[in-house]
């Protein structure tokens, strides 16, 4: 079912604060809604499929720059040539005037977001934000993978891997782990490290103790429980 968000309409036709929402077809008539929630005082925005409410509000509403004091007013209903009522008369011929608090936002940043935003742009912004988050996470995982492999390589050199002529053997036996780290697949790297068979291990470079330490470093990066065994 479609959903509409209701915003105050500012003098320059941009969106003010969100003041309501409803599901179903567009209904901005004052015959069915309060004075401030109907045209021309309000703008009714149809949420596009795939966009969430918070994203729509973030994109559409201009940033509040300052908050100033105003005179507080109680909720009332008004009608020409009639005294104001302070209880709902349940009569659409009366205009509803919501209560106003003693503090109200009145200044907005004109450059915060584009003033005119269509449904496609809302989805595009949400999709772009999600894509950036994925790209950043992948880049971070790859950088971590490269760092941990460099650390492993330096340790191997210190242990004498070159003199032992074991560089090629260790690289082949660790190939699945290395590939997982190069692609940023940290969970896969943990699995591959734990699956290295005994025949591919040795007493110096690929040991259970070193592999467990290797796995624990990845688990720490991921923020998950540390393994105590392979």
Topology:
Elements: E1 3-9, E2 15-23, E3 42-46, H1 53-60, E4 64-69, E5 76-78, E6 95-97, E7 103-108, H2 119-159, H3 167-173, H4 175-182, H5 186-195, H6 208-222
Explained architecture:
The chain is an alpha+beta fold. The protein folds into two domains: 3-117, no CATH class; 137-222, no CATH class. It is 39% helix and 17% strand. It has helices at 53-60, 119-159, 167-173, 175-182, 186-195, 208-222, and strands at residues 3-9, 15-23, 42-46, 64-69, 76-78, 95-97, 103-108. The strands form three sheets. Strands 2-1-3 form a three-stranded antiparallel β-sheet, covered by helices on one side. A two-stranded antiparallel sheet has the order 4-7. A two-stranded antiparallel sheet has the order 5-6. Strand 1 and strand 2 (15-23) form a beta hairpin. Helix 2 packs antiparallel against helix 4 (175-182), helix 2 runs antiparallel to helix 6 and helix 4 (175-182) runs antiparallel to helix 5. The protein is rod-shaped, with a radius of gyration of 31 Å. Residues 63-70 and 103-118 have low confidence and may be disordered.
| DSSP strand count | 7
Please tell me how large the radius of gyration is: 31 Å
Structural class: alpha+beta
The secondary-structure element order is EEEHEEEEHHHHH
Q: Strand order, biggest sheet?
A: 2-1-3
* Distance linking N and C termini: 50 Å
């Amino acid at each position: 079912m479609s959903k509409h968000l209701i915003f105050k309409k500012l003098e320059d036709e941009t969106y003010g604060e969100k003041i309501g929402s409803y599901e179903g077809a567009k209904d901005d008539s004052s015959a069915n809604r309060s004075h401030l929630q109907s045209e021309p005082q309000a703008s009714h925005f149809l949420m596009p499929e795939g966009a969430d409410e918070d994203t729509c509000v973030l994109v559409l509403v201009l940033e509040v720059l300052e908050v100033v004091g105003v005179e507080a007013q109680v909720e009332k209903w008004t009608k020409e040539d009639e005294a104001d009522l302070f209880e709902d008369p349940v009569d659409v011929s009366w205009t509803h005037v919501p209560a106003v608090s003693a503090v109200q936002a009145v200044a907005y940043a004109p450059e915060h977001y584009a003033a005119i935003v269509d449904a496609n742009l809302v989805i595009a912004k949400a999709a772009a934000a999600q894509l950036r988050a994925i790209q950043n996470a992948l880049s971070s995982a790859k950088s971590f993978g490269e760092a941990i492999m460099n650390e492993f390589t330096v340790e191997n050199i210190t242990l004498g891997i070159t003199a032992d002529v074991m560089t090629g053997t260790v690289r082949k036996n660790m190939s699945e782990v290395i590939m997982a780290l190069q692609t940023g697949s940290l969970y896969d790297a943990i699995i591959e490290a734990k699956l290295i068979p005994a025949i591919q291990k040795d007493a110096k470079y690929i040991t259970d103790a070193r592999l467990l330490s290797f796995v624990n470093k990845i688990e720490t990066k991921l923020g998950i429980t540390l393994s105590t065994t392979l």
